[in-house]
Write a structure and sequence with these properties.
This protein is mostly helical and 205 residues long.
Amino acid sequence: MALIKPQLSYGNDTGTALASCDELLQALHSQAPDARCEAVHALGNFPETTADIARLLEREKDQMVFIAALHSLKAIATPQAVSELVNLLRSEDAFKRNAVIEVLQGMPDQVAPVMEQLFADPRSDIRIFAADILRLLPHPRAEFWLCQSLSIEMHPNVIGAIVDRLSEVGTSQAVPYLQKTKAAFSDEPYIAFAIDVALKMCEAS
């Protein structure tokens, strides 16, 4: 599901804010979702409000406000903003997780420094989300991250996610990693089947 970025009016086409930073921060506590949405959208012009936007994301229930806040962090695009986005992958809300993954997929240069960290996370679901990010992340090291992670991964579900991604973005360089994993998990029929599919795709690329 593609996210629809709200079209709002607090800022103009040149990125110049039409309200002060303090006024916008106050509006984040408005009872009106439209007011919160416009305010957080405009705060994308103020990198110093990253923590305030992150706090809004933690409590926000309205999906359009949430999406506007994500895009403001994307616009800010600092390491702190990326860190706040990545933290949302731990949300219990599937909509929020999927929305964050889609935003991160549009930030290849900013996300690149944290990809290895994501694949090393002790939580298997976070490692799966890392593979999901790489599905549409236009970055030249995507295949490298997947192969590197595949070479050390032991969780079958994570391996399945990585293999699925390699079937989409992998090349012949991934073949030895896939073959080694298939041998190591020969007693897992699903993994063996998925690897066979990925090998065909990678060998043909």
